Structures are given as C-alpha cells and as structure tokens.
Prior knowledge:
Layout: E1 4-10, E2 24-29, E3 32-38, H1 42-48, E4 56-60, H2 66-69, H3 72-81, E5 87-92, H4 94-107, E6 114-119, E7 126-130, E8 134-141, E9 147-154, E10 160-161, H5 163-168, H6 176-180, E11 185-186, E12 192-193, H7 195-198, E13 199-200, E14 207-211, H8 220-223, E15 229-233, H9 241-246, H10 252-262, E16 266-270, H11 280-287, E17 293-295, E18 301-303
Parallel strand pairs: 3-4, 4-5, 5-6, 14-15, 15-16, 16-17
Antiparallel strand pairs: 1-2, 1-18, 2-3, 7-8, 8-9, 9-14, 10-13, 11-12
Helix pairs in contact: 3-4, 10-11
Amino acid sequence: MSEFNLNILGCGSATPSLRHLPACQVVDYRGQLMMVDCGEGAQLSMRRLGLKFSRLGHIFISHLHGDHCLGLPGLLSTLALHQKGGSLTVHTFADGVEMFSRMMDFFCRERTFELKFNVIDPTKRGVVLDLPSLTVESFPLRHRVPCVGYLFREKPKQRHLVGDLVRFYNIPVSQLKAIKDGADFVTPDGVVVPNDRLTTPADLSASYAYCSDTVYSPQLAEVVRGVDLLYHEATYADDSAHKARARFHSTASEAARIARDAGVGALVLGHFSNAYNSEARHLEEARAIFPDTIAAREGLVIEVRSKK
C-alpha cells in the first residue's frame, strides 16, 4: 500500500440507509490518520477497514449538518474508552467548538487524550494544518449553512541521492540534506560537483481535494485546479437537478464539469441521495463529461498519487 491513501467510510447523504452510511472518510498519510467529516457509523467503519484508533490525530468537519458530524461524540467517547493517548484536534467552526465541547464535557469528562479544537473561518481560504510533508487547506463552499472543503497537498519532495557517487566523493552526512534539496557539492580542493550528477529527480507530489455539500459553482474549478484526486458531492442525477439547486447540492454531471474544467487527475462521486437504488445513472452522466470517474462506496480504498 502506498503512503497516501483515501479510505471511504460513508458516502451517503442525509440519513443512513441499507446501502450507504453518512459522510465520512479517512486520509491515511504515512501512517497518520486524518478523518474528514464524521457521520454516524464512523467508528464501526474504522474497525471494518482496520484503521487504528491510536493513529487518528485530526478530524476535519466540513459543516454542522448532522450527517457530517453526529458520529463525532460517539467516536471521541470510544477513543477515551480505548485509552487513546496523545492528542486529537477537531477542526471546525466556532459554533462547532461550543457544541462539541459541551457534549464531551457532559458525556466524556474523563479522557485519556488531549482534545484540541482549531477554529476555522468558513468565509476564507487558508491552511489549517501544516505538517513537515503535507498541508491541509480549507476553502469556502456554497451550501445552506457555512461549509468548507479541504485540500490535502504534499509538499515538494527531495531529490534522490546516487549512493555510489555520494561514497565516491566521500560527502559528509551533514551535507546530504542540502544536496537532496538541490545544492551542489564542493570538494575539499574546490571542485564543484553539480547536483544533477549526485541526484535523480524527486518523486512527484500528490494532492487530494474534498468538496462536501455545495451547489454547482464554476469558480470552484480554480480552487481545485490540477489536483490528482477530487471527491465531489453528487447527491442527484440530472433527473433531480431542480432539487439540487433548491437544496444547494450538485448533480453528478455538475461534479464532472468541475473535474473537467479543473483538469484533475480523477473524480470520485459521493454523498448519494437514498432515493436512488444504484449509482449507475450518476456514473453514466458524469463519464459522458469526465471519463475518469468512479463512484464512492463504503470500504473503498484509493491510492492518491500524482497523475502528471
């Protein structure tokens, strides 16, 4: 398995059904687990996928509709019962901090981990998490309540050392990082060894964008331009486009237009209305516009890798 994977825990809308659970995903980046939305059933889905509670460090909430966050109190309580250590940060809006703090103080006062909150401004685009190799950025979406999407983007990677040449020139360990970052090497007698002789090109960085509940917005294509994997809600097929507009949701074909216009690598549809017995129509309509489209399903694991 690669070092950057998307795990689908729930891809339905509004309420749980026999086919789908409400919205929930886990991004697994180099063994660090980051949850995106936390609908009902999140903790059971983590167990089914073999995702360890102890590795969960961040939860990103897109908005405060129940199908995207009602699984959070139960999950946090279970983490305490399993004596999770360290800390866990919930990224949400100011109203969410107040609501979840009150819930946890009532249901789970005794915690084995430090529960932190990071307040997000849903009206602005900005980095909400900065890790050594990855950033997570939030960006506004257009829904009936304040709502954001999330963009996971790997930072540029280091070049690969050519081991034989490193040994040949007897390069000190203290200089290896600078050479990986692109520096030349100067021998003790002043000879400059160019970097492209000592290294091979770095692996390409990968990116993933999560677009939760949103009415079709052409401007969104610029925000997610060029990402390798895009998840975009597709609550309805074209037969219910009028419902999508009225309820500030998108159709599968609208999601595909965003993917096409943004030049993304691949599209994953999700947040399906339980009015449909299958996603066949969603896929047909989306693939007519953007062929590299799949439908999310519970238990699906997708490798996030550069398609450039």
